[in-house]
Amino acid sequence: MAEKSFKYVILGGGVAAGYAAREFAKQGVQPGELAIISKEAVAPYERPALSKAYLFPEGTARLPGFHVCVGSGGERLLPEWYSEKGISLILSTEIAQADLASKTLTSAKGEAFKYETLIIATGSTVIKLSDFGVQGADAKNIFYLREIDDADQLVEAIKSKPNGKAVIVGGGYIGLELSAALRINNIDVSMVYPEPWCMPRLFTAGIAAFYEGYYANKGINIIKGTVAVGFGANEKGEVTDVKLKDGRVLEADIVVVGVGGRPLTTLFKGQVAEEKGGIKTDAFFKTSVSSVYAVGDVATFPMKLYNDIRRVEHVDHARKSAEQAVKAIFASEQGKSVDEYDYLPYFYSRAFDLSWQFYGDNVGDTVIFGDSNPTSATHKFGTYWIKDGQVVGAFLESGSPEENKAIANVARAQPPAGSLDELASEGLAFATKL
Ligand code: FAD
């Protein structure tokens, strides 16, 4: 089969790939030099929309509405944009083999792609219950959500089960956003997770109590401290119920599982240095192999602010790491350098009329401030994390753009906290006065 050659290849067609493409264009990439190879059938889009407006019954998001870079207020890159720039968008093409020594990628259909410089942007895949041998986990209408095809299947199921029952397995981002989206579609929703509260990797018990109360008021049945151990199905193979470890059985027409992800690094095993489950990079997203970069969910990179190395599975880092890598590639070609990546962690989520942002590091002591009563109309509240006497992390629900900026500034500046009681009573003013 014919071999294609490019100066630059981005492997993966998700968020990082789209933002990298825009940066390539800014840096003056020439027609024919860049290819994006993606197993998805569509041009890069803002993945977070899949668990939010993509599932809404009204105000629904559909492509081409949310192609990158609209999620950060930037230009929307339609498929035509890539052809105008002479960027090859090679879609519906899964790379099955990567040989970094010969700089060759080979697709599942046997096509070979050569590169001079490679950017790995393969993102993550979902962890499946069938991976743990959960009985009946391959029944129909049990969904996972990563790509647009997954979201389309879920939308079909929602339409085909009006006023149906759904069980959401997992209490993280996906669990919380999907429970809200299904409830808005008039589905009867139960959430199941083993931890004592939702989003335990980020939320404190105090933060989680607000969201759990709010969800309960929306009619969502939250079941904590147990897990799904099996699924029943009807003669058509469709899921009918979820069996819990504590013996309870929940009826279900739809199940959505959100129990975490795993970075897609398998193609490169043994060929490149790895750390903390990802591909190890420097502050320019260069890997241990020359001319190979890794960005987004797959990269384990130096987190300068905390003098640590970390992997981050969030959209803001996917965008910024992609831009940093492309800037570094062009700079090095001109014998120049760029500043080291200096990332301030930023996570957010939206569900119902709620919207929160978090900046910094969630370590140390915490104080909660504001109105965290789930039944109140304003529900503006937040939390600071304090380590070694400094505020290192800040969370805010229902903040205005200025207030969110203020908590970001706090997390970056790490000001002295003073007394925790005073910090709690000062609340948001501590950030806005900085
Ligand atoms: P991805 O965007 O996942 O792109 C990876 C691409 O690589 C995909 O196109 C994939 O098909 C392709 N690919 C993988 N392997 C191959 C192969 N072998 N051959 C060809 N192509 C391949 N983050 C937030 O901060 N806030 C949110 O609200 C939020 N919501 C989310 C909601 C959902 C439903 C999901 C799934 C994620 C969400 N995230 C959110 C996380 C965020 O979307 C990811 O961190 C981000 O997309 C990572 O970008 P990436 O480019 O590294 O990977």
From TrEMBL:
InterPro entries, alphabetized: FAD-oxidoreductase/Apoptosis, FAD/NAD-bd_sf, FAD/NAD-binding_dom, FAD/NAD-linked_Rdtase_dimer_sf, MDHAR3-like_C
**What catalytic activity does the UniProt entry give for this protein?**
2 monodehydro-L-ascorbate radical + NADH + H(+) = 2 L-ascorbate + NAD(+)
Q: Does the keyword NAD apply?
A: yes
Residues in FAD/NAD(P)-binding domain copies: 6-321
**Which Pfam families has this protein been placed in?**
MDHAR3-like_C (PF21791), Pyr_redox_2 (PF07992)
User: What GO molecular functions are on record for this protein?
Assistant: monodehydroascorbate reductase (NADH) activity
Q: EC number(s) for this protein?
A: 1.6.5.4
* Cellular component terms per the entry's GO annotation: cytoplasm
- Necessary cofactors: FAD
SUPFAM superfamilies attached to this UniProt entry:
FAD/NAD(P)-binding domain, FAD/NAD-linked reductases, dimerisation (C-terminal) domain
EC class (word): oxidoreductase
Q: Give every Monodehydroascorbate reductase 3-like C-terminal domain span.
A: 344-431
Listed A to Z, the keywords are: FAD, Flavoprotein, NAD, NADP, Oxidoreductase, Redox-active center
Q: Which domain of life is it from?
A: Eukaryota
Role description: Catalyzes the conversion of monodehydroascorbate to ascorbate, oxidizing NADH in the process.
The similarity annotation says: Belongs to the FAD-dependent oxidoreductase family.
Question: Mind telling me which PANTHER family this protein's record contains?
Answer: APOPTOSIS-INDUCING FACTOR 1 (PTHR43557), MONODEHYDROASCORBATE REDUCTASE 1, PEROXISOMAL (PTHR43557:SF5)
The protein's name: monodehydroascorbate reductase (NADH)
Tell me the lineage of the source organism.
Answer: Eukaryota, Viridiplantae, Streptophyta, Embryophyta, Tracheophyta
